[in-house]
Amino acid sequence: MWRYLLPGAVFALLVAVFAVGLFRDPGYVPSPLIGKPAPEFSLPRLDDPQTTLQRSDLLGKVSLVNVWATWCTGCRQEHDTLLVLARDGGVPIFGINWKDDVIKARQWLQQLGNPYAAVGVDEEGSTAIDWGVYGAPETFLIGPDGTVLYKHIAPMTLAVWREEFMPRIAAAQSGSKR
Amino acid sequence: MRYISCLAAALLFLAALPSRAIAPEEALADPAQQAAYEHLTNEVRCLVCQNQTIADSTAPLAVDLRREIRQMLQEGRSEDEIKVFLLERYGDFVLYRPRWQTNTALLWLAPVLLLLIGGTALWRIVQRRTDLPIPSDDGDPPSSPS
Which of A167, B26, B28, B57 has the fewest other C-beta atoms within 10 Å? Predict the structure, then answer.
């Protein structure tokens, strides 16, 4: 009896393990930053390099930090969604322009519209490393106290916004008012 | 003729050996730091191209990470500190050899466990076979002595 049952059971177990593995996305690497304070940064602003965008600018309200670049096709894909969110989302979007050409980045915002409250320029990519960025576009949700609440790695869509961001924003806003 | 082609293949193989992808940057002045740099960059996964180390990869992120690691080494930070720096930002997956933790224990123990299971199975099969009657030379089982 065992002679037939045991190999069958081992086979079924392997099939189950491989099936789970097949449907996981190996490109998705969970961020260890979630639940931790957002990393310090200070970057020259895209519109005015004399001034900076820094961590303290994010504090006091729920905000998004979106890592983008003009060489990134996913960023082009999500741009219209970001414009909608900037208008109706109710939270400011801060941009980190990652390893990009400043002139192209300015053109991009002029031509496509600017969803950002402010954009910091990370030409060297050091700030991106501090934030654990490995593939643009990435969007972080930051709480009023500067905690990283969530990170989305892929173009932003309204479905993701509704399912992942809105509940967390509501929770963070009700928590901060108390 | 065959020997010549074998020899040629062996030579080609030998010639390919030293061509490890070392980062094209200049070597660090301190040989110990350079050794640490080479060691580290071969242990760190490039998250853009996940089956390459950052020493192997030409992805912009790998270039940036190599630069950061060089800077940190020059500032006198230890290999371990740099690993912690990377783990805090990119998580366990960034190290090709993940640390010993509760969630990596199974990964590290799996080879030993599989060897034990296989060994036990093999031992039991061999045991069972030794209990069988020895077949005679013509391959037939020995006839019962009746």
Answer: B26
